Amino acid sequence: MKNRSLAASAAVLALTAGAVQAETVVLSAYSGIFEENYRAAVVEPFMEAHPDIDVEFYGMPNSAQMLGTLRAQKSAPQIDVMILDVSVAKAATDEGLFAPLDESVTAHVADLYPQARVEGVNAVGVTFDNLVMLYNTDKVTEAPTSWEALWDPQWKGQVSIPAVPDIQGTTLTIIANRLAGGEGYMDGMEPGIAKLMELAPNVQTWEPRPDVYQPISSGTAAIGIGWNARAQVYADKSDGKLGVVLPEEGSGFQINVIGLVQDAPAGDAAKTFLDYALSPEVQARFTETMFYAPTNQKAAALVSEAALERTAAGSMDEMIPINWLEVATIRDAVTEQWRRRIIPLSR
Amino acid sequence: MMVERAMAAEAALGTPEGPDHLVLSEVGMTFGTLDVIPSLSLSVRRGEMVAFLGPSGCGKTTTLRMIAGLLDPTRGRISVGGRDITHLPVHDRDMGMVFQSYALFPHMTVAQNVAFGLEMRRMAKVEIRARVERALAMVQLGHLAGRKPKALSGGQQQRVALARALVVEPSILLLDEPLSNLDAKLRDEMRVQIRSLQQQSGITAVFVTHDQVEALSMCDRIVVMRGGHVEQYGTPNEIYERPATPFVASFVGRTNRLSGRVDPSGRLLIEGRPVAAEGRLPEGAVEVLVRPHRMSLRAASEEPPAGLNSLPGVLTGATFVGDLIQATVRIGAGEITVEQLTRRRSGLPEPGSAVTVAWEAGDTMVYPEGRA
Amino acid sequence: MTAVPAVSAGRRPMGGQQVAVALLLPIALINVVGFMLPIFNLARYSFNRATVGGGIENVLTLQNWTGLLGDPFYLQLILNSVFVSLGVTLCALILSYPIALYLHRASGSWRTFLTVLVISPLLTSAVVRTYGWIAILAEEGPVVSAIRGMGLTPPPLMFNINGVFIGLTEILMPYMILALLAGFGRLDPRVEEAARTLGATPWQSFRRVILPLTAPGIALGCLLCFVLAVSSFITPKLMGGGRVFLLATEIYDQAIVTLNWPLASTLSILVLVIFGAALVAYSAVLKRLD
Predict the structure, then answer these.
(1) Interface check C186 vs B, CB under 8 A
(2) Is the minimum CB–CB distance between B215 and chain C shorter than 8 Å?
(3) What is the ipTM score, two decimals?
């Protein structure tokens, strides 16, 4: 009697424990300001909506480290979902580190902008970011409207440019190529390189640290380039010192993709999170929070006018189409040109 | 520079100061708030070897270092051959110094060590080689010229240090406890060797030591120092036979202390018995010092020898040390030591028996009580 | 009773050996797992092929090596690294030597205080110290203002090779001072005094006695600082303004930004080769000094 009741209560306990015990999804993405905002806008609301799923955010400073971690854990993955740069995701896909991802995983895939779906990558766009011009409002009193402002001789020694191999430098090369009247970036970058050689004497540093936003906010540099989302967040925190402008000639996208790690332990819970992250409402919410343009076409309608104006979502047509996988094939050549011809002119 | 030095040497020869070569006048040294040497004056004659003798902390090494120029005196004046060198930099002083630790240059060979001072004097290479050879021959180390110091024994290193200091023919040779790192046998040899080298070269030398045997056996005169003061300056014989203070008497040689008093009539009494002493005696309580080997011992039953001071006592013990017998005798409340050469057929009285201790009046050293 | 010592005497060497092996085993294992294996992996990567976008193709190829050694940019980069490191080492030596000598001669609590003062920068990260230098050398900073105040045109001190030089030198000085102090053991103050009494001026006694006796410390300090200079990348990254290309910064870029691990590995192995050369030079110098 006694024994049976004990066994029964143990079983009940085990059952309730099983029901209450949350499944865990490990999400890996950028640490720092991205983590701060993504937790607030996506991760925490998700856990409220899905009390049975626990999301653990594992932040890393850059995509390279994420790739390195995936490689190291290939035989026993610890990460379920990863957000990283599209070109690094390509390498990860090639090495079999990402599980296939299509409409069967989440229906939202069908609603994504075409730029968010890249052939040969087992991950889809989750944020769009674009290169913008940054300026210190004390030094640059009139908001510039054109990329040409970087070339203005009055900013000699005051321009801050993250140089290649950083992809901000690569994007600038593509923009400069267009400014100089060049054809598509795959048809030769010479006009762009020549244009940047004229910019070189203006440059204060090719390696702004800790990032490009701080020195411009503080006035160490007057003008420069950076990514829109971070620039908008820092601009809000800068007491009006940091100005951000999307120049009239348009810009280029940087794409972060989200993917499922191959053989990851979480299984369906991970897919649930992915579905949530790509949904129009959540996409819109993250745009409101951190000014990344949404990748879901249905999201734009849900974003406030004020926030929309501070992203590229309203000007998708003005973006220079960049296929980062193609760019990767010419990246070494571009880097070489920068190092041998552009940077030496700025000593 | 060479010419200057030669001129200075010439001037020194004709100096009116006569035989005094090194003169310290009211030299003082203060480290922070500590007066290591309040005021010290003394002079060393040309060609003389003088020992600075005293316990550690007496200021002897400090004085030597001030002479060498390694310490800057706080006050006073130091001169050599009449020339004021008080504030002359070390390298212009023309002194040869031998350090307790030898301080050979470990990265140089023996020959290079010896040549160093000559090179500093910009002497011609050929001349240097000849002098180094001579100097090494002088200390019997010619065969080790190519060795590094660490491959030498302590005594050999000492001789290299000596050759290195002497080869430059300095105006003064300074020796800072040069023998204290050697074993006893080597120390005896080196004592003789250093003294003979000094006498051959006729160099003025200052020798710092805490070892009375070294001071007494090697030096022309001895400065006994204590607490930064000169206690006595004199020849070894004067220091030993006529110590100026009880401190000197007990620091140089061993001595027995007895309490006594000099009555108003000038009589010295110990244990109520009259004792003869030479010279004028201080009135009142006195300390009487007699060296153990100047005393003799006999049984109380024997007649005390005429013309000698004698005191009755009780033999409390005797130690046989070969050529000597050391006997301890209680006199009144105090105890003294008597040393006697052993003779084949003479025995000591039994311990516990009454004895008489005797000594000559001239061996009685009397100091006012409390002078320490 | 008498047999016991004989037995134990016979066994002791073997027991001692076993104990030695047992004691050495953990560190040997740690070395194999923590050092040998990664190095081996690094060497292996340097013979793999990098694919576009950061992938690694597991084939055996010499292309990283031939590409690297045939490229004037990389040859220049290697020379730059070596010369900048040598220059920084020399500057650190010249600035540290008097400090170390003074410390060596100081005594008591004063010496302890100064030693703590010298070591204290090591308690702060190189990143923080480098930002300090950026503030000091910046366009509106005190140094530039002071030079302007004297009516001179200041050279660019920041975001170029000058900045890297200044920053690295200061960051390496504590290491240099400690290495020098460790090597000053043979320097007995009596030996200097002996030189002085023999007629050597302060300069002559430095040249002929102090310098030769401190040479082992100098060699050790230079080896340490050279190795640290070649491998430091934070300071060149922060202060070089992207204009100064060195092996360490290039390894960082290739490994972290471009994701070309095979090239990064090749460069890393090259750095190891340079370290090896520095060690050989060091032991040759020590041998000559002895």
Answers:
(1) yes
(2) no
(3) 0.82
